[in-house]
């Protein structure tokens, strides 16, 4: 198993998760993060840290899409290990439905 980041992260990017991951396996896209499934050690520390509840174990139902997305983009986006300021409009998008369809961007973030 692994943990995955879902579309609840899109446009939130609070980044509380990256600070706690013991193996630095978060990767940064333009407006969301993903977890590298092969690097994640399934410790679960990040899950309760996420204010958007965007991180789930892939053993939960219907996570195949997010596992695929995390696997693909963890290979393409830069590693991120330290949090930065969340976007100014992050709270406005917290809990919004359908964020993948509306906003997903395959572009890489800046990383660190
Ligand atoms: S804490 Fe949650 S919303 Fe913030 S960047 Fe991490 S996964 Fe995304
Ligand atoms: S479950 Fe642990 S190893 Fe995996 S991403 Fe979260 S903090 Fe990192």
Automatic annotation (TrEMBL):
Entry annotated with the keyword Endoplasmic reticulum: no
Organism field: Parasphingopyxis lamellibrachiae
InterPro entries reported in the protein's UniProt record: 4Fe4S_Fe-S-bd, 4Fe4S_Fe_S_CS, 7Fe_ferredoxin, Fd_C, FdxA, RnfB_subfamily
Compositionally biased tracts (Basic and acidic residues): 85-104
GO molecular function: 3 iron, 4 sulfur cluster binding; 4 iron, 4 sulfur cluster binding; electron transfer activity; metal ion binding
Annotated region described as Disordered, given as residue ranges: 77-112
Role, per record: Ferredoxins are iron-sulfur proteins that transfer electrons in a wide variety of metabolic reactions.
Keyword Repeat among record annotations: yes
Protein name: Ferredoxin
Residue ranges annotated for the 4Fe-4S ferredoxin-type domain, each copy included: 1-30, 31-60
Keywords for this protein: 3Fe-4S, 4Fe-4S, Electron transport, Iron, Iron-sulfur, Metal-binding, Repeat, Transport
Cofactor(s) required for function per UniProt: [4Fe-4S] cluster; [3Fe-4S] cluster
NCBIfam families: FdxA_Protbact
């Amino acid at each position: 198993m692994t943990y995955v980041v879902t579309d609840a992260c899109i446009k939130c990017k609070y980044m509380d998760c990256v600070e706690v991951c013991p193996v630095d396996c978060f990767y940064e896209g333009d407006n969301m993060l993903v977890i590298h499934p092969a690097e994640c050690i399934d410790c679960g520390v990040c899950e309760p840290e996420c204010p958007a509840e965007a991180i789930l174990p892939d053993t939960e139902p219907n996570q195949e899409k997010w596992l695929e997305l995390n696997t693909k983009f963890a290979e393409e986006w830069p590693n991120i290990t330290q949090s930065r300021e969340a976007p100014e409009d992050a709270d406005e998008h917290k809990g919004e439905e359908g964020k993948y369809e509306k906003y997903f961007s395959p572009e890489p973030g800046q990383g660190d």
